[in-house]
Amino acid sequence: AQSVTQLDSQVPVFEEAPVELRCNYSSSVSVYLFWYVQYPNQGLQLLLKYLSGSTLVKGINGFEAEFNKSQTSFHLRKPSVHISDTAEYFCAVNRGSTLGRLYFGRGTQLTVWP
Amino acid sequence: EAGVAQSPRYKIIEKRQSVAFWCNPISGHATLYWYQQILGQGPKLLIQFQNNGVVDDSQLPKDRFSAERLKGVDSTLKIQPAKLEDSAVYLCASSPPRGSGGNTGELFFGEGSRLTVL
Fold first, then answer.
1. Which chain A residues are closer than 8 Å to B45 by Cβ?
2. Could you report the per-residue pLDDT of B81-97, keeping only the tens digit for each?
């Protein structure tokens, strides 16, 4: 079975500071990894995904994430955040062999202060 | 391209009443998912359809929840009778057919239907 752990439920940060949102997963098989963002009263929007190839993936809005198989991690980073990045961020995983359902972490609320 | 459409956006009911949510996926997307998102938690899969067949409904509380996708396009999720703990956002998502060039594992989500049970 797959599980996803997001280690921080809330991350406060000042505008223009760097940020890292942590995600660890457990799986006995190869997985595909995703980060989604959810703004208030909206659905989930894909930020980036890792399917294969380069372990450093770049997404929208200046976000990037690095897949680390040995540490089973897929941490999300941004070198300089904006107030508009305030949102809930979800890490998700699915089985690499059968694309389909996603297993989500409980989410990390990123709050950017001026 | 139109996204995943859901309605209603908000619904308030009393416990033991019934409610239904509707979802229209992106055109051509064979797979449809219903997720439940309780406040402070990540989305949890309730049911997955492939065309009009159920792929996975192991997490669906079948004594009160039901879902259908009769023509393999839009879908309805029903709760009857509702309990207080059913208060949540119900998210519908869709994805292209497996093996198609457009399937990269991404799920496309609607804006959700927020249910409050009093």
1. 101-103
2. 999 999 999 999 999 87
